[in-house]
């Protein structure tokens, strides 16, 4: 599906979707429980449905009841009857790899072509160090994966600079082992706020995970029980596109609702926009960020902890005065696509001046004049949404190929844009 975006002004109020990160973790945490849990106000998307499928495969149940996931826990996972297809969801595959390491038999995990290109080697090595079985069928650390257990051992070390999801997988599974698990970090942890999201959610489910001098640790034989229900907060990764739209095109102001404070690292988008000169205010009690069109200036941003913000920041940089340097970004290349190169290539098609290095992206806003063009969303929801925001201030119509991929994290994205005044045509 193509999306055509014409230059537009935005105004009014719009609500950020529920958090994908919290929804994934909540569905799986409820699966680790032994009763029924209602996951309320979740993100219902292709990715989170993949996690629901995995919970069913391990012996649990997941039904969607009027926008609420009703999860019947499996407690200790059964060996699945069939291969688990994780679709395009790297979060699903990594988190349930930890689940598979608790089962007596073998679990086979696969996904689409994009997911089968993403690295999982450090997590597989950690499971083998814990006396489980964890193999890549192609012997390259990539899916399809064959994983089995039950794991044994109380301590494992893992690099922190590939994916924080490896740590999350081990902590969530470690709470269901008899002896618990200490996860030592061999290198600096990238995307650290995502582990804090995990710890925050685990606490809501009655599970304690702590920071240690070496990394993280979780006690064993813990029960997952949120008291019957858990409510998913709004998603700041998705809100970043709405806030960027406001900063670029809301002459009369835009209110983005559902933006309550949480452990999400991507709340940093508010600070980044303020540094760039955006006129905004955040009412944390009401969960509303108000923003209006502003003359932006380039800044330097370290995305070591917030990789999902790179596409948004690149778009903002293309419309700002001066240079926007996005640094500490090499790990952003290992997402649904190489987002560093993808944003460089597609923004250049739209007239932006860009310099790409292995671990950084510099957008030369002063040398950029955005114009409408036909661009490729690269099968990546975040690339599609960032390019749609760029289209608001480009000269002429921007056509984005593969627009349907917003279903991964923000299924109603284009409806939300229409609701605030964007001229969108889907074909």
Automatic annotation (TrEMBL):
Pathway: Metabolic intermediate biosynthesis; chorismate biosynthesis; chorismate from D-erythrose 4-phosphate and phosphoenolpyruvate: step 6/7. It comes from the Archaea. Residues 7-417 form the Enolpyruvate transferase domain. It catalyses: 3-phosphoshikimate + phosphoenolpyruvate = 5-O-(1-carboxyvinyl)-3-phosphoshikimate + phosphate. Keywords: Amino-acid biosynthesis, Aromatic amino acid biosynthesis, Cytoplasm, Transferase. GO terms for cellular component: cytoplasm. One of its GO terms (molecular function) is 3-phosphoshikimate 1-carboxyvinyltransferase activity. This is 3-phosphoshikimate 1-carboxyvinyltransferase. The keyword Amino-acid biosynthesis applies. Belongs to the EPSP synthase family. 3-phosphoshikimate binds at residues 20-21, 25, 163-165, 191, 308, 335. InterPro entries: Enolpyruvate_Tfrase_dom, Enolpyruvate_Tfrase_sf, EPSP_synthase, EPSP_synthase_CS, RNA3'P_cycl/enolpyr_Trfase_a/b. Phosphoenolpyruvate binds at residues 20, 90, 118, 165, 339, 382. Signal peptide: none annotated. It is found in: Cytoplasm. Pfam families: EPSP_synthase. PROSITE patterns: EPSP_SYNTHASE_1, EPSP_SYNTHASE_2. The active site is at residue 308. GO terms for biological process: amino acid biosynthetic process; aromatic amino acid family biosynthetic process; chorismate biosynthetic process. Transmembrane segments: none annotated.
């Amino acid at each position: 599906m193509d999306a055509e975006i014409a230059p537009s002004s935005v105004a009014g109020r719009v609500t950020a979707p529920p958090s994908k990160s919290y929804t994934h973790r909540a569905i799986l945490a409820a699966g680790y429980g032994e009763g029924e849990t209602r996951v309320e106000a979740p993100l219902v998307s292709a990715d989170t449905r993949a996690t629901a499928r995995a919970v069913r495969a391990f012996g649990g149940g997941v039904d969607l009841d009027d926008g609420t996931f009703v999860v019947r826990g499996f407690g200790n996972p059964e060996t699945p009857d069939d291969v688990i297809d994780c679709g395009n969801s790297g979060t699903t595959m990594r988190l349930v790899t930890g689940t598979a390491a608790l089962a007596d038999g073998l679990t086979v995990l696969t996904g689409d072509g994009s997911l089968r290109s993403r690295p999982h080697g450090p997590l597989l090595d950690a499971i083998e160090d814990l006396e489980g079985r964890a193999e890549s069928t192609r012997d390259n650390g990539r899916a399809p994966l064959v994983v089995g257990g039950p794991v044994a051992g109380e301590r494992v070390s893992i690099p922190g600079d590939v994916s924080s999801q490896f740590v999350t997988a081990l902590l969530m599974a470690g709470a269901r082992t008899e002896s618990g698990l200490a996860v030592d970090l061999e290198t600096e942890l990238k995307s650290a706020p995502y582990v804090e999201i995990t710890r925050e959610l685990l606490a809501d489910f009655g599970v304690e995970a702590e920071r240690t001098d070496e990394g993280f640790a979780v006690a064993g034989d813990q029960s997952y029980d949120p008291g019957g229900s858990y409510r998913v907060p709004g998603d700041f990764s998705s809100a970043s596109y709405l806030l960027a739209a406001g900063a670029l095109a809301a002459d009369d102001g835009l209110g983005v609702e559902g933006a309550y404070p949480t452990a999400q690292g991507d709340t940093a988008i508010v600070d980044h926009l303020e540094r760039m000169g955006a006129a905004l205010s955040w009412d944390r009690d009401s969960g509303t960020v108000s923003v209006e069109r502003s003359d932006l200036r380039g800044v330097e941003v370290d995305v070591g902890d917030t990789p999902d913000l790179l596409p948004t920041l690149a778009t903002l940089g293309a419309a700002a005065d001066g240079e926007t340097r996005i640094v500490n970004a090499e790990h952003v290349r290992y997402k649904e696509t190489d987002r560093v190169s993808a944003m460089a290539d597609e923004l250049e098609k739209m007239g932006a001046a860009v310099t790409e290095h292995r671990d950084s992206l510099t957008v030369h806003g002063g040398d950029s004049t955005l114009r409408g063009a036909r661009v490729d969303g690269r099968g990546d929801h975040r690339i599609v949404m960032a390019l749609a925001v760029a289209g608001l201030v480009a000269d002429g119509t921007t056509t984005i190929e593969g627009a349907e991929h917003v279903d991964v994290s923000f299924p109603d994205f284009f409806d939300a844009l229409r609701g605030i005044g964007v001229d969108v045509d889907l074909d």
